[in-house]
Amino acid sequence: MIISFIVYLVLFIGGIVLMGISHGLPDFQALVFCAGLAAFCLSMAWIMRAGRSGATRRSGNWDGGPSTS
């Protein structure tokens, strides 16, 4: 659980930092910004998937019916 949080935090903060510094770079601004955006999105996907009650798990579906997997 702690490792999962550390991975999330590194991706989240790293993505924000990359997006923040991208405007000040002389070259590769778009590439650095897209890398930061991808890291930010991966951090959100990581934290939603982590844990037993992850938001993207099939067994915890929201309609109350049986799970598909």
UniProtKB/TrEMBL annotation:
Membrane-spanning intervals of the chain: 5-22, 28-48
Top-level taxon of origin: Bacteria
Keywords linked to the UniProt accession: Membrane, Transmembrane, Transmembrane helix
Keyword set includes Transmembrane helix: yes
Name of this protein: Uncharacterized protein
Organism encoding this protein: Microbacterium profundi
